[in-house]
Amino acid sequence: MHQTTSKTSSAKTVCDGAVETADALIAARASDISEWTAQIFDFAEPAWREYRSAAWYVERLRAEGFEVEEGSAGMPTAFCARWSNGDGPVIGMYSEYDAVPGNCQAARPERAPRDGLGYVAAGHTDPHSALGMGSLTGLLATKAAMEKHNIPGGLQLTGEPAEKVRGSKPLHAAAGYYDGLAAMLSFHPFYMLPLCNTVRWDTHCGAAYSFVYRFICDTPETWGAKDGAPIPQSHSDIRAPGANDALMLMYQNARALRDSMLPHRGGWSLSESILATGQATADNLPALRADIQYMMRVPDLTMAEQLTAQLDRVAEAAAQLAGCRVEKHWVCKSRPGLANHALAQVTYDALQEVGAPEWTEEALELAREVQRACGQDPDAQPLIPECDQLISPQEAEEILRRDLPPSQRNSTSDDYTDMSWHAPCSRLYIARPALRGGPYPSWAMNALGGMPPLIDPTVLTAGRVLSRTALRLLTDPEARDAAWTEFEARKAEADIPPLADYPAPIDLPWPEYVETVRGRHWHIPG
Q1: In sequence order, which residues have a C-beta less than 8 Å from that of residue 320 and are 6 or more positions away?
Q2: Which of 281, 388, 414, 519 is deepest in the core (most CB within 10 A)?
Q3: Angle, nearest 10°, between helix axes 452-475 and 361-373?
Q4: Nearest one of 484, 517, 524, 498 to 5, comparing CA atoms
Q5: Which residues share a beta bridge with 242?
Q6: Beta bridge partners of 206
Q7: For residues 366 and 373, what is the distance between their CA atoms, to the nearest angstrom?
Q8: Are 67 and 81 in contact (CB under 8 A)?
Q9: For 6-29, b where at least 16 C-beta lie within 10 A, e where not — what string?
Q10: Among candidate residues 272, 119, 294, 299, the one with its CA nearest the CA of residue 204
């Protein structure tokens, strides 16, 4: 359903002048934006525990004239910022800012944790520090142009915590935060070829389900005992296996289940993470509680439901064998994405005007230093060629489809997809620095995402593309109408309402930082 759009001469004149204003704002505040990006990179707070990062965004947005609702949709580290320049269309953007445990890396060209921390603490990988700041840059540039050129309409920026567990967007969607938007602009730093300096076309991300099974051994005396028998007193008496055993049974049998299902359907994955660390005892008392989280990335909801039902059966069996009961706590139910060619083309038009990011010789020398630190010979051109090239959405789509079954409509997962059911949505990818050669350890990519000379071009380029796209939509009703008409047509084919029927899972034992008399430390709750 390819649709082209055209700008009227009056809209083009308004938009062109506004674009110059937006670009000027970004150029004038480039050093501020660089410092902001580095600050969020240094905070590096994990899912549901992004206290400093969220507070930073709230304070910054209020200083920029936005009305900000904190704790939106019951999530303490989420927010919704709104600004209006009178009646008119409202364009949505969003910032993510969660980091990943076990990826602590300083913004330096060698492997080193951030000051005062160890390697097991959280760090930015994608990096969401650049993702969130690219969107904020585009938002502020659009606002400046709207004010100067008296463009009516509004802007909304949602703060989206816990993307790594697909956490916030299904909850924001169910609470109506994306309703009423004329468009939603999604930006992500490039993370997989061919999606580098391009816009997604047909194959958007798929569905994702995530939940935690909590095994609880609160009546160990009933396991293996005859009715009326006393509670065992001897260390050699029979004991309930307990929660740790239930967790291990779940872990092993779910892996067997995955291995038996994987060859029969392409393009999906199932990952697990043990959240609770158990009890600090070597006694033969049974472990009282253990948590294991699952995340499935699947093309469609039917497959998500099938796999979830199988895991539920395994969990119940594991609990019974180990003398436990099991609770299920939902983390995420996100829908597969809905394409919008009209908005994708408007976004790619903006990307063609801006061009790919450009890196200075200072930045390239930092990249060579990372190559040296990884035992690689430095390249004259250390970044992969795709970093400074554009690829059309149609060509990227053709390459992406080569490894997918023809019947599979969606691939991988990212919860921006929930936004696509409430407004036309485009998914923009801007190159982040990636090294030639390799293979490289994960710290190298993380370091590249934190050093300002290397990551700033990604952020500033994204801001320029997002502001151009937003201004085009605000000043061109034909482009806006084309995107909305296509959105309604695609949604009518198979409408999927919001799936989040659970509260924000903020009380699970997510790892976090804690303040003690020894300073700020990484902590895994029991």
Answers
A1: none
A2: 414
A3: 130
A4: 484
A5: 287
A6: 413
A7: 11
A8: yes
A9: ebeeebeebbebbbebbbebbeeb
A10: 299
Read off the amino acid at residue 124.
H
Q: 3-state class of 331 per DSSP?
A: strand
CA distances from 381 to 84, 386, 425, 454, 485 (A): 45, 12, 35, 14, 44
- E strands, 109-226, are 154-160, 183-189, 198-199, 207-216
The C-alpha angle with vertex 522 and arms to 521 and 526, in degrees rounded to 5, equals: 120
Give the pLDDT score at 168.
96
The closest of 96, 171, 176 to 135, measured between CA atoms, is 96
Q: Copy the structure tokens of residue 491.
A: 């949604």
pTM for this prediction: 0.93
CB 227, CB 309: distance < 8 Å? no
Our CA dihedral for 303, 189, 193, 105, rounded to 10 degrees, sits at -90
Sort residue 267 into left (φ over 0), alpha (ψ -120 to 50) or beta: left
Nearest Cα to 242, choosing from 212, 218, 224?
A: 218
SS (H, E, C) 264-304: HCCCCEEEEEECCCCCCCCCCCCECEEEEEEEEEECCHHHH
Q: Is 401 strand, coil or helix? A: helix
Q: Which stretches of the chain drop beneath a pLDDT of 70?
A: 1-14, 225-238, 261-266, 276-284, 526
CA dihedral sign of residues 272, 206, 90, 64: positive
**How many other C-beta atoms lie within 10 A of the C-beta of residue 463?**
30
Q: Which pLDDT value is given to residue 285?
A: 74
Residues of the chain by 3-state class (helix, strand, coil), percent to 5: 40, 20, 40
Contacts of 441 (CB under 8 A, 6+ apart): 111, 374
Q: How far apart (Å, rounded) are the C-alpha atoms in residues 464 and 354?
A: 7
pLDDT in the model for residue 6: 41
Give me the pLDDT at residue 287, please: 83
Residue corresponding to tokens 């590096």: 44
**312, 196 contact by CB (below 8 A):** no
Looking at residue 156, its pLDDT comes to: 98
The token pair at 407 is 């019947």
Query: Looking at residue 313, what is its pLDDT?
Result: 95
Closest CA to 95 of 63, 68, 65: 68
Q: Please, are residues 215 and 250 in contact by the beta-carbon 8 Å criterion?
A: yes
Distance CA 255, CA 262 (A): 10
β-pairing, 269-274 vs 289-298, is antiparallel
Q: How far apart are CA 273 and CA 417, in angstroms?
A: 23
| Euclidean distance between CA atoms 80 and 271, whole angstroms | 31
Q: Write phi, then psi, for 293 (nearest 5 degrees).
A: -105, 140
Residue 173 sits at φ, ψ, to 5 deg, of -65, -45
Nearest to 105 by CA among 427, 454, 446, 353: 446
